[in-house]
């Protein structure tokens, strides 16, 4: 039932009102339910969750903490595999009396390590509805936990390089575990790509590395002058590899895109070095016009860059032997955005320039192709391990925290969530990042040349400059601002089968809970942003995922109750169990009560 572009065909539900309720709110006519939450049994022998009696052995078999990226691989109409990232842990909400990693028990540290990573869980549809629930009986042979201690391997041009060698792995090919996996994507061959994001926060004794390494530590957000950073989880007390003074290269083994095959629970997750090392929000794939695989990626820190990888060889449907290594050989690019309005018109008020658009042209600057570096003075392995340093040298554009980047499967446009950047000064604004002290963020749209994901040049514009629509420094693609929802801090983006853009938020600065929004990107409804869902107190909205049949929308409710000063003795959220229960990060599904399409 796809409709022609230009028709008034946006979602028709009535937007929910912003709120501060400790619940998941959905529009009239919709229902929601928890699918799976922290501590739920995943592997055989997993005990029922018991907040007061946690163990690392139990956690390693249970659903992890702080669910983030969510995707569903359907096994027919009524069964599926749900993949979920577990980004990080809130020890001060998980454990009574917790102060910091130095005072923590070693068992608490091991629990936190086991609560990171990811989960594969079998799920089933409830009757004929859009509701899905955890399968709790039968073999569940695909169910899997991946943690900080899962054996992995490196592939691609930097695998085996000196920069990745450690005492425990003298060949530099067998890293252990993944850290801070935030967003992600899928591949055409049915695997997950998961991004290691803020890996810098897990290491100690950066002041003890060789002098020559210190600038690289600093460039990746690790102090080279501090021994034990405040709030450090002290994984080094359990595993020595987190001590940089003893194992300076260990940090180079995290910050990668990790590929996981959910259909093979015995498979070794792969860190794909050709996709570079940065604070990877995630990676989402599309195909170039000639069939090469393209992965779009954001580096989520202030003043960081947008990247893409294009494979050398083409994807061939069904030819696994060809496809499985496509992400090991190709070109890694970084984006430069050039505005088309005079710099004097980007004046720091957030007002539009005279041509009525924040827009311009851009190019993808190659950093490395296969094992050939394009950056003077750096080898291919150095470009891939110290990707930020390479991008600095080629004049890429410093952005307002690039989070999810994803291509619209209907229009071919590529959308970048730029979540916020309160550190940008008036002297630092440019047309692609036009607001100083940008606290609400914006969405950037890229149209690749000839609408080909393999192109090296593009046009771009900002269809959405976020905030309260009453604020003149906001823009909703020219749509009537009296009819749109307020939005702040876009983080994850997704598309439904009609090509509508779904946006989830993290850290809204508008005084209400975070939520999920939808906005058509073409036709007369372009810019008509509406809020579909809100999450409980202290939570951010992750995922999101609109199922292929458009009957279900999944969101990960991450860190409910994460508010200043909250503890297990004084929780700020009791979601989802209610009463006096402790908050539990959980994946939620919402569906239309009468079986309608999501958004209808
Ligand atoms: Fe983990 Fe970029 O959000
Ligand atoms: Ca312009
Ligand atoms: Ca975020
Ligand atoms: Ca995120």
TrEMBL record:
**Stored InterPro entries:** PhoX (IPR008557), TAT_signal (IPR006311)
Segments carrying the region annotation (Disordered) are 561-584
What Pfam families does the record tag this protein with?
A: PhoX
Put simply, this protein is called PhoX family phosphatase
Which lineage? Bacteria, Bacillati, Actinomycetota, Actinomycetes, Streptosporangiales
């Amino acid at each position: 039932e796809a409709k022609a572009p230009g028709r008034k065909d946006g979602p028709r539900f009535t937007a929910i009102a912003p709120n501060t309720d400790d619940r998941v709110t959905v529009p009239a006519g919709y229902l929601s339910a928890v699918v799976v939450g922290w501590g739920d049994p995943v592997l055989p022998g997993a005990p029922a969750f018991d907040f007061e009696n946690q163990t690392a052995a139990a956690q390693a078999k249970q659903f992890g903490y702080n669910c983030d990226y969510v995707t569903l691989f359907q096994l027919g109409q009524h069964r599926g595999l749900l993949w979920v990232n577990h980004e990080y842990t809130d020890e001060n909400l998980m454990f009574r009396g917790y102060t910091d990693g130095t005072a923590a028990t070693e068992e608490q540290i091991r629990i936190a390590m086991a609560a990171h990573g990811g989960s594969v869980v079998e799920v089933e549809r409830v009757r004929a509805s859009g509701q899905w629930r955890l399968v709790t009986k039968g073999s569940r042979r695909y169910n899997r936990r991946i943690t900080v201690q899962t054996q992995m391997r490196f592939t691609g041009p930097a695998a085996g390089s000196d920069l990745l060698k450690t005492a425990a792995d003298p060949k530099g090919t067998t890293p252990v575990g993944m850290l801070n996996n935030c967003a992600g994507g899928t591949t055409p061959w049915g695997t997950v790509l998961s991004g290691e994001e803020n890996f810098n926060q897990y290491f100690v004794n950066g002041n003890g590395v060789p002098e020559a390494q210190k600038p690289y530590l600093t460039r990746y957000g690790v102090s080279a002058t501090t021994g034990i950073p405040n709030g450090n989880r002290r994984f080094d007390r359990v595993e020595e590899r987190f001590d940089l003074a003893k194992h300076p290269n260990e940090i180079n083994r995290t910050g990668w895109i990790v590929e996981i095959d959910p259909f093979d629970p015995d498979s070794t997750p792969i860190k794909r070095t050709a996709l570079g090392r940065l604070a990877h929000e995630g990676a989402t794939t599309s195909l170039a016009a000639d069939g090469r695989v393209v992965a779009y990626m954001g580096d989520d820190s202030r003043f960081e860059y947008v990247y893409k990888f294009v494979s050398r060889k083409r994807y061939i449907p069904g030819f696994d032997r060809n496809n499985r290594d496509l992400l090991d050989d190709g070109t890694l690019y970084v984006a430069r955005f050039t505005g088309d309005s005079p710099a004097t018109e980007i004046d720091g008020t957030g007002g539009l320039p005279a041509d009525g658009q924040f827009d311009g042209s851009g190019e993808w600057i190659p950093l490395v192709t296969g094992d050939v570096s394009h950056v003077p003075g750096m080898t291919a392995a150095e470009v891939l391990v110290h990707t930020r340093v390479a991008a600095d040298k080629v004049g890429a554009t410093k952005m307002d925290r690039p989070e999810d980047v994803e291509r619209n499967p209907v229009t071919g446009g590529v959308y970048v969530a730029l979540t916020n950047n309160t550190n940008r000064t008036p002297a630092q604004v440019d047309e692609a990042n036009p607001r100083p002290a940008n606290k609400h963020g914006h969405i950037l749209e890229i149209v690749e040349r000839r609408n080909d994901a393999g192109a090296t040049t593009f046009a771009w514009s900002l269809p959405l400059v976020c905030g309260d629509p009453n604020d003149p420094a906001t823009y909703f693609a020219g749509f009537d601002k009296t009819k749109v929802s307020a939005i702040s801090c876009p983080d994850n983006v997704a598309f439904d089968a009609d090509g509508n853009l779904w946006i989830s938020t993290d850290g809204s600065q508008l005084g209400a809970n975070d939520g999920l929004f939808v906005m058509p990107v073409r036709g007369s409804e372009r810019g008509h942003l509406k809020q579909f869902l809100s999450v409980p107190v202290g939570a951010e909205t992750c995922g999101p995922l609109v199922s292929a049949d458009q009957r279900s929308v999944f969101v990960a409710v991450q860190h409910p109750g994460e508010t200043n000063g909250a503890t297990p003795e004084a929780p700020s959220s009791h979601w989802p169990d209610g009463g006096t229960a402790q908050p539990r990060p959980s994946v939620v599904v919402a569906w239309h009560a009468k079986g309608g399409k999501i958004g209808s």
